[in-house]
Design brief:
Elements (H helix, E strand, L loop, with lengths): L17 E5 L13 E5 L13 E5 L2 E6 L2
Antiparallel strand pairs: 1-2, 3-4
């Protein structure tokens, strides 16, 4: 058996093509929770700068702004 040397691979995101939000799947009524928002390139890697700002809506109403 021949073992080849490990070759490091560097993955670098490109410009933002979309956004992905992360939140817990189960919370109690009235329980606070954190929402994480991540800009992604077209291959779902973290996007490189510049990353745009985002508007967060809750039940159709603007809830928060996330600055760029």
């Amino acid at each position: 058996m021949i073992s080849l040397p490990i070759q490091p691979i560097r993955i670098v995101g490109s410009s933002a093509a979309g956004v992905h939000g992360f939140a817990p799947s189960v919370v109690a009524v009235g329980e606070p929770f954190a929402l994480s928002v991540r800009a992604e390139d077209r291959y779902y890697n973290r996007a490189k700068t510049p990353i745009p700002g985002w508007e967060v809506f809750f039940n159709g109403d603007k809830y928060a702004d996330i600055e760029a």
